[in-house]
């Protein structure tokens, strides 16, 4: 696992030049042996290093480390209001504190909140962290991105694998007046927003796989996890987690249980390296716009485009159900709640995302 010191070493190396073990040790105030140990950990985390006797260490394919200020700058460029770096999220009014309780007729939730951006080197999961924070603080419009997650979570209790410098892992908090039923189709709407962001950054050809996988030529390049805190009737606080493979080392790709690809493959040979700070800003900008639309109109405005972007629309598929059974049929589309509609001859059946997996038949 990478430590904060490991990250400061990697930041020193991020210029892609050679740095001697002595220089690195001096900048971080450690022994050369400790530097070598920390760099071994970086390699285990998926970063490629070159060691040359007499010259030192060099990061191969040096990543552009995430930088909150770069992301804020790009978001302002896209026309968003962005909170200053030192602004603290407001405390939520305590439910049992009359002085703090919102007066009746309190302003509705702002559909276009100022965005706040925080980047951390390492956290268990950006979504878990935002969910924890949401108990005390208002996370409406809060973006939390991490260079490395130590317990990244995928759908259906799976582990989400990402590498420092080669992935994008971030979460965005949002509040809705409505409750769980209303936000049922939100993760599908998020899929459409992510595809728009990728296309705006010259990464075309990514498709959706129900409910919210992002795939390229049938290989997974990213995923979306939407989690909710709140009452059935609303209001609710949602944490939208997005994970994208930007440039995964081959060894890591092999370790992941399903066939995966990355955005570097999507960009194609000879394309410029992906600027992760700009990409995250573009993703957040598309997400913020789509979440505001969703708050007003629900899933309806996204449904037709979602179907167009679905790699399996009109195709034969097999659904793996939680009880181990499977159902075959042809994908007829999704309904207004984001449920998959499967056709078997004249019969139609609806399936809610929950624990179901879709496979090509
Ligand atoms: C999936 O396809 O299973 C969903 C993957 C979602 C991964 C992202 S990475 C950022 C956020 N934090 C997490 O722990 N998970 C989501």
Structure report:
This protein has three domains: 4-60, Winged helix-like DNA-binding domain superfamily/Winged helix DNA-binding domain (Arc Repressor Mutant, subunit A, Orthogonal Bundle), CATH 1.10.10.10; 68-307, BirA Bifunctional Protein, domain 2 (2-Layer Sandwich), CATH 3.30.930; 312-358, SH3 type barrels (Roll), CATH 2.30.30.100. Helix content is 30%, strand content 25%. The chain has ten helices and 14 strands. The chain has helices at residues 4-13, 21-28, 32-44, 68-77, 126-133, 186-200, 250-255, 263-267, 276-297, 300-309, and strands at residues 49-52, 56-59, 116-123, 142-149, 167-176, 207-209, 213-216, 219-230, 236-245, 316-320, 326-334, 340-344, 347-351, 357-360. Strand 1 and strand 2 form a beta hairpin. The two termini are 39 Å apart. The site of biotin has 20 residues, from helix 5, strand 5, strand 8 and strand 9.
């Amino acid at each position: 696992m990478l430590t904060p010191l490991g990250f400061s070493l990697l930041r020193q190396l991020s210029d892609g030049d050679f740095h001697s073990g002595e220089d690195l040790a001096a900048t971080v105030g450690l022994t050369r042996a400790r530097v070598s140990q920390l760099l071994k950990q970086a390699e285990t985390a998926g970063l490629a290093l070159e060691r040359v006797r007499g010259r030192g260490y060099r990061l191969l394919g040096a990543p552009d480390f995430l930088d909150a200020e770069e992301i804020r700058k790009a978001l302002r460029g896209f026309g968003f209001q962005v909170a200053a770096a030192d602004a603290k999220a407001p405390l939520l009014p305590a439910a049992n504190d009359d002085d703090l309780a919102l007066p009746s007729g309190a302003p509705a939730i702002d559909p276009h909140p100022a965005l706040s951006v925080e980047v951390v080197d390492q956290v268990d999961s950006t979504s878990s962290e935002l969910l924890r924070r949401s108990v005390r603080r208002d996370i409406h419009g809060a973006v939390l991105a991490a260079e490395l997650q130590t317990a990244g979570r995928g759908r259906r209790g799976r582990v989400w694998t990402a590498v420092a410098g080669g992935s994008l892992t971030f979460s965005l908090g949002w509040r809705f007046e409505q409750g769980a039923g209303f936000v049922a189709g939100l993760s599908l709407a998020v899929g459409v927003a992510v595809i728009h962001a990728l296309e705006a950054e010259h990464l075309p050809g990514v498709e959706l796989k129900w409910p919210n996988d992002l795939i390229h030529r049938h290989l997974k390049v990213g995923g979306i996890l939407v989690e909710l805190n709140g009452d059935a009737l609303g209001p609710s606080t949602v944490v939208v987690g997005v994970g994208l493979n930007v440039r995964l080392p081959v060894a890591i790709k092999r370790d992941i249980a399903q066939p995966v690809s990355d955005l570097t493959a999507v960009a194609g040979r000879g394309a410029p390296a992906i600027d992760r700070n700009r990409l995250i800003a573009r993703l957040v900008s598309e997400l913020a716009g789509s979440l505001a639309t969703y708050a007003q109109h629900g899933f309806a405005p996204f449904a037709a485009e979602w179907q167009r972007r679905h790699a399996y629309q009109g195709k034969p598929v097999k659904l793996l159900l939680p009880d181990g059974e499977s159902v075959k049929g042809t994908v007829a589309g999704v309904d207004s709640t984001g449920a998959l509609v499967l056709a078997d001859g004249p019969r139609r059946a609806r399936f809610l995302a929950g624990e179901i997996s879709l496979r090509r038949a």
